[in-house]
Amino acid sequence: MKNLITKNFLPLVLALILVAGCNSSTKTKADKGTTSSGQQASVEVEVFDAVKIKDQIVETIEKMPSEKEIVTLLNEAGASYILDLTVPAEQAEKLMTKSDQSFGLGLYSFDLLYASIYNRGDVAAEISSVSEQLIDNLGLREELITTSNYLGRIKLNADNKDSLDYLVTQDMNHFHQQMSTGDQPDVYALSVIGSNVEALYILSQTTLLAKNNTQMLEIMSKQTERVNLVFTLLELMSGDENIKPYYEQFKPVVTIFEQNPKITEKELAEIGPLMETVRKNILK
Fold this sequence. Notes:
Elements: H1 9-21, E1 25-34, E2 40-48, H2 54-63, H3 67-76, H4 98-117, H5 121-137, H6 141-146, H7 150-156, H8 161-180, H9 185-209, H10 214-221, H11 224-237, H12 244-259, H13 265-282
Antiparallel strand pairs: 1-2
């Protein structure tokens, strides 16, 4: 895995995204009531438009290491499956806004991978139902389900480990194929941010809980590229005032990986709470 962090990483990314960000807004008129003479008053305001930076979003996501890699490495390291670390199915009902639902779709997609690798077909079936509801809420049924109903097939094959693993992988591939050419790059960006935040959260918490975490610390040390690219996506999306706080909260994580190519217990003790905070705020 390439190490993209250099001591100048943050300034470089900020400069690159600033250029992209200059063209990511659309001007619209906001109603300001009426003047003393009875005329309608309005003012032009800039509204963030992710469609204008779709190419940068897709290009960044294409560089992202697979989330499945983390689950596979955890499994190979002998880490146990911890259901309590995943997002409860009932949490989906509390995701009310488009951005919340987009993040949620990503969080659940990683939990689906996590369940499939550890042969938790019961959990995978439940997550598939939740994901379908979020997809409907986001108006993406035609793109993600009607064309190829992998989620439905996952529920039907929950007891077959080989089929489960295959179908979950195909579902993820189908998601990327459809979303990279679709017209909702904001949903695409936020869902990928969500899935990788969940991946880093579960990895960090599992490593903190493990009695012998030497191998898992090595896995943590290999996440520099992933952290960088999540940060880049957050930077791209930070033109949306609703997303900007998550970008700010993720900065310290980038700094830790920038300054520490090898993650030890000391860095882990900082990363764990930071990832927990970012994830908790996404789920508020």
